[in-house]
Specification:
184 residues; mainly alpha; de novo design (two linked rop proteins); 6 helices; rod-shaped; disordered C terminus
Length: 184
């Protein structure tokens, strides 16, 4: 009788422990999704600001058409991208084309002093900072989740309920980590 009660108690404790781990994994997965949605919100804001930046720069930079076209092309690729890997590559490419545009803007004193251009640049810089923060938050949540999914005893519950590791948002191409070079 006592053995049956102890055995029943262990089964109940095991069940409660498993439910606790399952709920923890669900909460962590939601944090990862929330982190991604925060990145998405800031990327949308950046996509909305870029046409204003390009339009302001067009009048001053008539012979810098290729730079402006690259920014517009990169923006469209970023808007059209789907899935984490594609979005990651497109956004990294967009970041590098924006750096090139800002480097070129430095050579146009009138454009640099234009109030609309300054305002759009400031908003874009603020958005870039928010994107960096959102990426960091997302990657922190992914690291927490991946650690939980891979450690014992969580990995047993994770395997039973098909929890899989999430991908980090990172720069994949080493060339995109370097500052752009402007040559005339």
């Amino acid at each position: 009788m006592i053995i049956a009660m102890v055995l029943f108690g262990l089964i109940v404790l095991s069940f409660l422990f498993s439910v606790s781990i399952y709920n923890l994994l669900i909460a962590m997965r939601q944090n990862v999704k929330n982190g991604w949605s925060q990145i998405d919100v800031q990327l949308k804001r950046r996509h909305d600001l870029i046409p204003n930046l390009v339009e302001t720069a067009k009048g001053y930079m008539a012979h810098e058409k290729q730079t402006l076209e690259n920014v517009i092309k990169a923006r469209q690729q970023a808007v059209d991208a789907s899935g984490l890997k594609d979005k990651q590559q497109a956004e990294n490419f967009l970041s590098s084309t924006l750096k090139s545009l800002f480097a070129v803007v430095e050579n146009y004193p009138n454009l640099k002093a234009d109030q609309h251009m300054l305002k759009v640049q400031e908003e874009l810089t603020t958005t870039e900072n928010k994107i960096a923060f959102a990426r960091q938050y997302y990657n922190d949540e992914v690291a927490r989740f991946n650690t939980a999914v891979q450690t014992f005893p969580n990995n047993v519950i994770a395997g039973l309920f098909h929890f899989t590791k999430e991908d980090f948002f990172e720069i994949v191409n080493p060339a995109e980590k370097e500052a752009p070079q402007v040559k005339f």
